[in-house]
Amino acid sequence: MNNDLIKKHILIFKNDAVGDLTHSLHAINNIIETCKNSKITIYLSERSKNFSFLIKNINVTFKIINYDLTTIQKIQIFYFIFTNKISKIYILTPKSFYFLLAPIFKKIKFYGLCINGPNNYRRPIKFLRKYLFKYVINDRAAIFKRDSTVQLQSELTKNIDQLSNEFKFNTSIKISDLLKKYLPQDYIYFHVKKTTVDKLGWGINELTYLFNELLKHYEYVIFTKDIKKDFSLDIFKDKFNVLDFLTKKFIKKDNNIILFDNIEGEDLFNTIRNSSKILAFHGMMTNLGSLEKKPIIDLWYCDINNWDDYRNYRNAFYEFKPKYPSYKFIIPNKDIKKTLRKMLFALQND
Q1: Residue 255 in this model has a pLDDT that exceeds 50
Q2: Domain, as residue range, for 272
Q3: Residues 152 and 242 both lie in one domain
Q4: Side-chain half-sphere of 235: how many Cα atoms within 13 Å?
Q5: Are residue 237 and residue 336 in the same domain, yes or no?
Q6: Is the pLDDT of residue 50 over 70?
Q7: In this structure, are 222 and 343 located in the same domain?
Q8: Where are the extended beta strands (E) located within the chain?
Q9: Domain count of the fold of the chain
Q10: Mean pLDDT, to the nearest integer, of 117-135?
C-alpha cells in the first residue's frame, strides 16, 4: 500500500500577525518534529504569508486566509475539514470560530490555546472547552507573573516522550543581491512605527537627533518604516539615504543613515538578523530579532491612565516579553533626550 495514503493529516490555525507567528514557532516546530510522517497544513494570514520561510517545510503546505475570517473562508475551512481525513487540529490563533468546530468534528483531536480575561471573559466558553482534547489557558485576568504565550503553546504541543523541549531557531536564508550590495557591516537597526511615534510626538527633527546620536556608537543606522500609503516618504527623502526595494533605486545623501523602504520577507529578516543591535518599538521587529537572541533595546510604549490600562500593559509584558540576557527594554518618553539617556547604558555595554 502507498504510504502516502495512510499518512495522518494535521491542521494548524495560525492566521495572525507576524509577531504572533514568531511566538508560535516553538509550538509549530514541536508539531513538525513529532509528526514527521504526517501531512501538515498550516493556515497563515495575508499579514504573515511572506514569512512562511520561518517554518520548516518538510511535509508542510500553507493556505493563506484573512486575519479576519470572511464568511466564505469559514465555509471553505469547514468544507476542507469535512472532505479530508484530519486527525488533529491545533488552534494556535484563538478565534471563536475555530472552537465551534470541535463539537461538530468529534472524531478529531482538538488542541487549543484558550483565553481568560477580566470580568469572567472566556474564549471559548466553558461548554466548548470540554470538546478539546487538550488546552492551555492564557489568563489575561491575572495580575501576577505568569507563563508567556511561547511557553503556553510549547506546553500545548510538546510530546512527553521528547528528551528535550528546547527550541533552537535555525534557518538558512539567502541574501538577495540588492541587500548584499547595500547592507553595511556595523549598523544599528531601527523601525519607525507610525502610530507610536505619532503618540510620542516624535517628528523628523526628533528622529534625526536620535539617529545622529546612534551614529556615535555605530557606523551606520539602518531604519525601516510601516508600509502604508499614508506614510509620506518625502520627509525622509530630503534628509537620508533611501533604498527602495520595490523600484531597486538608491537615493544617496551625505550621511550614514539609510531608509530601507518597501522591504519585506527574507530581505527584512536578513536586515534584522545581521544588525549589530536592534532598537524598535515592541512588536514585529523585536519579535523577529528575538528568534536568534539578537541584542535588543525594546521600546515598550505605555499610555497608562487607569488601573485597567496598567493591568493590560502588565499582562502584555508577561505574555510577550522575550527572556535572554541581551534583551533589554525601556519605556520611551515624549522627550527624545530623556529616552536617549535611558538607552545609553545599553548602548555603552554591548
Answers
A1: yes
A2: 177-347
A3: no
A4: 13
A5: yes
A6: yes
A7: yes
A8: 9-14, 39-45, 60-65, 86-91, 109-117, 121-123, 134-139, 187-192, 220-225, 241-244, 249-251, 257-261, 277-281, 296-299, 327-330
A9: 2
A10: 94
Burial class of residue 314 (count of CB atoms within 10 Å of its CB; 0-12, 13-18, 19+): middle
Considering only residues 147 and 1, tell me which one the structure prediction assigns the higher pLDDT. 147
59, part of any domain: yes
Residue 317 pLDDT grade (very low, low, confident, very high; cuts 50, 70, 90):
low
pLDDT band for 118, please (50, 70, 90 cuts): confident
Compute the distance between CA of residue 9 and CA of residue 22 in angstroms, rounded to an integer: 23
Q: Is residue 166 part of a domain?
A: no
Q: What count of residues does the chain have?
A: 350
How far is Cα of residue 170 from the mean position of the Cα atoms in its chain? 16
Q: What CATH code is carried by the domain that includes residue 124?
A: 3.40.50.2000
Enumerate residues 6+ apart whose C-beta is below 8 A from 236: 204, 225, 242, 259
Within-domain flag for 164: no
Return the C-alpha cell found at 47.
499579514
CA 121 to chain centre: 25
Cis peptide before 124 (omega within 30 of 0): yes
Query: pTM (2 decimals)?
Result: 0.86
Which pLDDT does position 300 carry in this prediction?
A: 84
DSSP 8-state class, residue 174: P
Same domain, 151 and 202: no
Same domain for 76 and 224, yes or no, is no
Q: Are 12 and 120 found together in one domain?
A: yes
Name which of 174, 172, 152, 154 is nearest 162 in CA terms: 154
- Which carries the bigger pLDDT value, residue 86 or residue 304? 86
Judge if 304 and 194 occupy the same domain. Answer: yes
**Residue 162 placed within a domain:** no
What pLDDT sits at residue 83?
Answer: 96
